[in-house]
Amino acid sequence: MTVKAYGAHAAERPLEPIEISRRAPGAHDVQIDIAYCGVCHSDLHQVRSEWAGTQYPCVPGHEIVGRVSAVGAHVSGHQVGDLVGVGCIVDSCKHCHDCDEGLENYCDGMIGTYNFPTPDAPGWTLGGYSQQIVVHERYVLRIGHSQAQLAAVAPLLCAGITTYSPLRHWNAGPGKKVGIVGIGGLGHMGIKLAHAMGAHVVAFTTSESKVADAKALGADDVVVSRDAAQMAAQAKSFDLIVNTVAAPHDLDAFMALLKRDGTMTLVGAPASPHPSPDVFNLIFKRRSLAGSMIGGIPETQEMLDFCAEHGIVADIELIRADEINSAYERMLKGDVKYRFVIDTATLAG
Ligand code: NAP
Ligand code: ZN
Question: Which of 74, 86, 75 is nearest to 132 (CA)?
Answer without folding.
Answer: 86
